[in-house]
Amino acid sequence: MSIEKVVIPVAGLGTRLLPATKSQPKEMLPVGRKPVVQYVVEEMIDQGLEKIMFITGRDKRSIEDHFDRDPELLAHLSQAGEERLFNGSGYDENTRFFYTRQIIPKDRQTPGGLGAAIAMAHDFVSEEHFVVALGDTIIRSGNHAGLVRRMIKSHEAKDAACTIAVVEVEEDEVNQYGIVHPVGRGRTDFEIDGIVEKPSPSDAPSRLAVAGRYIFSSEIFSALERTSPGYQGEIQLTDAIRILIKMGHTVRCIRLKKDEHRYDIGNPESYYRAFIDFAISDQQYGYRIRQYFQQRLRSF
Ligand code: G1P
User: Fold this and answer.
1) Dihedral angle over CA of 9, 13, 16, 17, nearest 10
2) DSSP β-bridge partners for residue 52
3) Which one, of 159, 243, 148, 166, lies nearest residue 205 by Cα?
4) Distance in Å, CA 126 to ligand 1 centroid
5) Residue of minimum CA distance from atom 15 in ligand 1
6) Fewer CB under 10 Å: which end of the chain, C or N?
7) Partner residues linked to 212 by β-bridges
8) CA of 59 to the centre of ligand 1 (A)
């Protein structure tokens, strides 16, 4: 089995970040020097994955523009001797981008949910195993084999139908995520026998939350066909994963390492935290920004 395709869903409305997301995708909000989704694409390219499909939606055109070649801008910058500004602007010669649009169903005013978005990738991935990377989640890694590579290795070795990245969250955060129920102690690489979308703290089966990276076999599409609307009336990917388990498939998790950080750009607080972390570690300005923070904090 060789995994080479990635699906990046970016069709969500980003309502928790309004008004910043009224006419621009939350995936295009800058964190430090780059838009969120560029970190996601670079993470995939770093792991050797170069066929990337975006599941887009209304008002998401700027994502396609961002990953397009821009000869006019390039010419302008080279005239000014500023090509370096173009480096890492998101466009990559070797990467193939594909786009499909999640149409809002007739009976709804909002997209049909993450599960419905992933169902749209069936033609793209066909019978292959594939990676799903949420376009609003940045994974920042230390100096070791990247998260998705570790997931692929385990997924293949254990012949899993689904492998999910998870991270421990605080008790009062479990209601923001999909939460898994490990078989056994759930240390670094483990099987699960349950998963629930955004449970209340009293119903949560653990504090291990889905961290925005998944690997699936094409069985997920049969599971999605059997999935009824769940949390907020949407087709939830989490519910489809629970059906996969019921169908008798192996679903496993890989826990993020201590020096791997997940930034979920889902609400103002998590967005501020992400921006601060990237700003204070900026190579050029980080030192001065840290000094600025220290100075500002003294007056609070
Ligand atoms: C989605 C998933 C959830 C997962 C989360 C990770 O929720 O439904 O299971 O834990 O992403 O960021 P959303 O953030 O779209 O509400």
Assistant:
1) 90
2) 6, 97
3) 166
4) 24
5) 114
6) C
7) none
8) 21
Using most ligand atoms within 8 A of CB, pick from 177, 224, 251, 269 the residue to mutate for ligand 1: 177
Task: Check residue 76 and give its pLDDT.
Answer: 73
Angle between helices 268-280 and 286-298 (to 10 degrees): 120
Domains and CATH numbers, the chain: 5-266 (3.90.550.10)
Query: In terms of Cα–Cα distance, which of 96, 34, 30, 23 is closest to 61?
Result: 23
Q: Each residue of 267-284: pLDDT tens digit?
A: 899 999 999 999 999 999
CA-based nearest residue to 234, from 112, 58, 132, 106? 112
For the chain, how many residues are written?
300
In the reported structure, the alpha carbon of residue 15 is separated from the centroid of ligand 1 by a whole-number distance in angstroms of 14
DSSP 3-state assignment of 261?
Answer: strand
Q: Give 19-75 pLDDT, tens digit per residue.
A: 989 889 999 999 999 999 999 999 999 899 989 999 998 778 889 989 887 777 777
Nearest residue to 91 (alpha-carbon basis) of 31, 50, 55: 50
**Pocket of ligand 1 from Cβ distances under 6 Å:** 12, 114, 134, 137, 177-178, 197, 209-210, 212, 236-238, 264, 266
